[in-house]
Automatic annotation (TrEMBL):
Gene3D superfamilies hit by this protein: 3.10.450.50
Protein name (Swiss-Prot/TrEMBL): K7_02212p
The SnoaL-like domain, residue ranges: 10-101
Cited InterPro entries: NTF2-like_dom_sf (IPR032710), SnoaL-like (IPR037401)
Length: 126
């Protein structure tokens, strides 16, 4: 499976809110670094994200890959939070791949939190 295919499967699982499918793409012990949620285990991060989400829709913009076992996924994210607030933003997820290149070891999520910080804080307070 190519790096681009792995990223497309990831976005599909994210859109479906399918925790099991998302986790199947990561090695055990994988870590997420998120500007809103901080550094968490993959399982804790996606469990919390899906709990805070009513619906997500992603639109793939670019996949940047290298032979160094790193791939960056650039996409538009429409996030309907559990309080029905909708935020739209561009996001880049940078994935470190395992030595076989078929699973993610780490994800660093990059985006400007300013446009969605208030809505996120409202969700966390409710």
């Amino acid at each position: 499976m190519s790096q681009a295919d792995l990223c497309r499967i990831y976005l599909q699982a994210l859109n479906e809110g399918n925790l099991e499918n998302v986790l199947s793409l990561f090695v055990p012990g994988a870590v997420v670094s998120s500007p809103l949620y901080g550094i968490k285990s993959v399982e804790d991060f996606y469990r919390e994200l899906f709990d805070d989400t009513n619906q997500s829709t992603t639109t793939l913009l670019n996949v940047f890959s290298s032979n160094a076992k790193t791939v960056a996924l650039h996409f538009h994210y429409k996030w309907r939070m559990k309080n029905e607030e909708v935020v739209n933003f561009e996001c880049v997820d940078v994935f470190k791949l395992n030595s076989d290149g078929n699973k993610f070891e780490k994800i660093t999520i990059i985006y400007d939190t300013h446009p969605l910080r208030a809505a996120f804080d409202d969700v966390k307070m409710s």
